[in-house]
Amino acid sequence: MLxxxxxxxxxxxxxxxSEAKPLVILHGFLGMSDNWKTLxxxxxxxxxxxxxxxxxxxxxxxxxxxxxxxxxxEDVLAYCMTHNLKKIDIIGHSMGGKxxxxxxxxxxxxxxxxxxxxxxxKYYKPHHQDILAGLNAVDFSLKPDRTTVDEILKNHIPxxxxxxxxxxxxxWKEPGQLAFRFNLAVFNxxxxxxxxxxxxxxxxxxxxxxxxxxNSNYIKDEDFEDIKNHFPNAIIETIPNVGHWxxxxxxxxxxxxxxxxxxxx
Length: 265
Fold this sequence. Notes:
Helix 8 links the parallel strand 8 (208-213) and strand 9 (234-239). The chain is built from 10 helices and 9 strands. 34% of the residues lie in helices and 19% in strands. The strands form 2 sheets. A 7-stranded mixed beta sheet has the order 1-3-2-4-5-8-9, with helices on both faces. Strands 6-7 form a two-stranded antiparallel sheet.
């Protein structure tokens, strides 16, 4: 079963009971549920029961040699069934957005509204080579400390923000022994899976919101037609002056736009 962080139980009006609306949040490649804690808490204060998942091979969830969007979708379905989440709103960023798209098109009866952050349904060429090279350059048998790990990563990943994001998955496996929480060995073998396109016949007709970063090239104007083919009721908006990690770079705008969409009837 997937590891999760759950925030909020929903609001109750005086004299009546109302169940919290389940909201499932899926992180991107090499991320984890912790990346969404602040935003998750905000959604929870507005009456959502927020489930922030660690997808397989990420965070505190189980490691597996199987790694594809199909198996991740089945993981999310099993999680929803275990937690009795009959119908959910779902937010997915990047890889998590691909999982959310495939989940919504495979099990449309389980999804009320879909929010996809800075990823489209199209195929993406592998583009994480520098990041993987940096991660693979870390030799944990030498028992490096956090500063040393950062120095090694810097040789391949000059961007400070990206390194900080990756360092969040660093933990003390045992005293004096650091490790990454994610399953790097499987990612090395299955990296092609990250860019796989949504099946051509995958369609979800419920309200869908695509939110892209103005400085990101993951969703281009020419991708709009493809998005609409899969998601006929899609709205596409842009947060200016942010890149691919739009929810981290401008969390205020991200929250305002996504919450406005979620609260609409």
